[in-house]
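dude i think i finally got it to work??
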Amino acid sequence: MENSFYQPFDFARVNGFLPESKGEYRTSFQVDRDRIIHTSAFRRLQSKTQVFFSGEYDFYRTRLTHSIEVAQIGRSICNRLNQTSPLLGEGFQIDADLVEASCLAHDIGHPPFGHTGERTLHRLMASYGGFEGNAQTLRILTSILFGPDRGMNPTRGFIDSVLKYKTLYGEVAEQKNHFLYAEQDGVLQFVTDGAPFPDSIPAGMARNGFRSVECQVMDWADDTAYSLNDIADGIHAGFITVEKIERWAEGRDLDSDDEVQVKELLTAIRKDRVEPTIGKKIGAFIAGANLEEVSNFLSDVTARHRYQLVIETDIGKACSLYKAISLDLVFKSQQLQQLDRKSDFILTRLFEVLVEQYVTSKKPRFKLLADEEEELLRAQPDETSRARVICDVLAKMTDGIATRTYKRLFDADFGSIVDLV
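look at this
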């Protein structure tokens, strides 16, 4: 059945329409999703940190399992909205395949070592255009997924579904995160078909909050997954205990709603019912998302910008509470902070040696990268472009590859000439 929610505007591809393959049975958004799944960039997420270092234990979440969980939650939100929202109906629905593609791809640009790696690379790239996980996702999809200057030629709808931020680096002073690279202005122009952002949506938080409905669903699915599942991992790892939660709650000015949430969590831990309780909460978070109609400069062009996801107040509060518990008891713990310090040190040393070798040196003394990467570096016109290639090399590394590369370069007792990676 034809879905009038989407028009040719939404199916346009950034590099132009491609002729359909003979016998093609998939929609354009299904093609986008399938291209993501069958890439090494997606598979590398299995060895990138979500909360704890990948490979420490087999039951902790990685970026890959997190992305799969986000995709399941995103599809469930989409299916529920299509069935229950009076604004949607038969033949006019949000495409679940597009939402799934967005969820699967949303973290594909994240570097090794989680958000610590992202902050480190941004610090190191500050004078070369910065680093941001969402901007890197866009760079991968449109430019380098299959090699230098070989993106996946995504549809406008898919690009917009992963485009959480629409402010360019340099448009707002002292941007620590939440931006696109300045050179991605052309892709941003493609997303809006050249329509300029009105004065009512200035650069910064306002523009970053301007998202398609599929992007909003993806973002809420992401919030749902990490606010709840990070709690589960933290409990299994021993970072979150009854005693620690009780001490944490005593030091906070919690209202009655927050106290109910904390009590439920404590009961789940005491009765060893964490997984079922978290599963029930995920269902509540899915049911707490609804649609309302909005008007903006793209709402007449595409239905993707005609609707806004509204989260029920009590559900939004619960999500914020779970995030706060994870932040204070897990991410700010001594153990993770020590690992974060090590991660920052590893990436800093790798970046410095590669920049010295390939960015600022006129003639590299050693061969530290693959032939294709060195050839690409030689083709760059300036230091900023070369630094971006070095950043790509580091960002695509898994936790393990980054650690082994560091050891091979700096540990005299590690490595041999037969090492392959």
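The domain at 8-208 is CATH 1.10.3210.10 (Hypothetical protein af1432).
im so relieved honestly
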